[in-house]
Amino acid sequence: MKSIRRSMFVLLIMVGLVLLLILPSLVEAGGGPILFGDPDSADTQGLLGLVRNGYQPLQVVALGAPAADEPAVPLLRDRGLVDEQAAAYVCRDFACLAPETEPSILQTRLAGE
């Protein structure tokens, strides 16, 4: 019984390590949106709520906040607010669509339509 538990533990660790290796590319490959905005603002929270809605296994959501410094995460570089509003960048096949600020349009984009 101990060897089965140990084997399951090792398997879970290995799966976790594999996921850590592939997660950075999942967002730009289509694993989830990139959001840019003040985390406490209503517009950012609205987009975030829409993105978090439902079951989406392996979805990665990157959230960047406006700051004077360049983001440390390369995925957030060259992204920003649109007309002083939070923006969502939906990425698929290593290409991102134009930023979106409207939740209804973002929902359509996330559905892949």
Enumerate how many helices there are, as a single number: 3
Assigned CATH class: Alpha Beta
Shape designation: elongated
* Strand arrangement across the biggest beta sheet: 2-1-3-4
SS class: alpha+beta
Order of helices and strands: HEHEEEH
Number of strands: 4
**CATH topology-level fold name:** Glutaredoxin
- Could you tell me the mean pLDDT? 81
What does this structure look like?
This protein is of the alpha+beta class and 113 residues long. It has one domain (2-110): Glutaredoxin. It is 42% helix and 13% strand. It has 3 helices and 4 strands; from the N terminus they run H-E-H-E-E-E-H. The chain has helices at 2-31, 42-51, 103-110, and strands at 33-36, 62-64, 87-92, 95-96. A 4-stranded mixed β-sheet has the order 2-1-3-4. Helix 2 (42-51) runs parallel beside helix 3. 19% of the residues are buried.
Summarize it:
The model has no long low-confidence stretch (mean pLDDT 81). The longest helix has 30 residues, at 2-31.
What key attributes describe this structure?
alpha+beta, four-stranded mixed beta sheet, 13% strand, 113 residues, Glutaredoxin, elongated, single chain, 4 strands
Please give the structural blueprint.
Blueprint (H helix, E strand, L loop, with lengths): L1 H30 L1 E4 L5 H10 L10 E3 L22 E6 L2 E2 L6 H8 L3
Parallel strand pairs: 1-2
Antiparallel strand pairs: 1-3, 3-4
Helix pairs in contact: 2-3
